[in-house]
Design brief:
With about 140 residues, the chain is mainly alpha-helical. The chain has one domain (about 5-135). Helices cover about 50% and strands about 5% of the residues. The protein contains five helices and two strands, in the order H-E-E-H-H-H-H. Strands 1-2 form a two-stranded antiparallel ribbon. A hairpin with a 7-residue loop joins strand 1 (about 20-25) and strand 2. Helix 1 packs parallel to helix 3 (about 85-100) and helix 3 runs antiparallel to helix 4. The relative contact order is 0.18.
Length: about 140
């Protein structure tokens, strides 16, 4: 995958899922940890890029950053270990996690994630057409 394809896939996933992927891990459910996949079937931005065949539950141990996952799980597709792709996925993972920690509620998360995705696109000089289309579609009444 190219950086643009990665960005577009993440955007499509984000707007289809409509919220973050995390687990609550304390007795009072106040603390959360983002996960590549959770028990509710949700996937974080990078978890959505990992096929079912390639995913391993150990990837969610201590919520490893994508750079460590790529290094530790050598069966992943080669495009994931490309330096630019890994850095981009790290930024996208950070955008997801920061928005989820700030706003775990789905609607609030989606409002917070749009500027974060735009910032990542700007850094990597990516086209935001997929983001713009998804924002319009989300705002259009059904």
């Amino acid at each position: 995958m190219t950086p643009q394809e990665i960005f577009d896939a993440v955007v499509e996933h984000a707007y289809k899922q409509g919220g973050p992927a995390f687990v609550r891990f304390t007795r009072n459910d106040q603390d959360l940890a983002c996960t590549y996949r959770n028990d509710n079937g949700r996937k974080c931005f990078i978890g959505a890029l990992i096929s079912d065949e390639d995913y391993r539950p150990e990837m969610d141990t201590n919520t490893l950053p994508i750079a460590r996952v790529v290094k530790n799980f050598t069966h992943l597709p080669p495009w994931m270990s490309d330096t630019v792709n890994t850095a981009l996925m790290g930024r996208l993972q950070q955008a997801h996690d920061c928005a989820a920690f700030a706003e775990p509620d789905d609607a609030a998360f989606m409002a917070k994630i749009e500027p974060a995705l735009r910032a990542v696109a700007h850094i990597y000089k990516l086209d935001t057409t997929s983001l713009d289309k998804n924002i319009v579609a989300r705002r259009t009444p059904r």
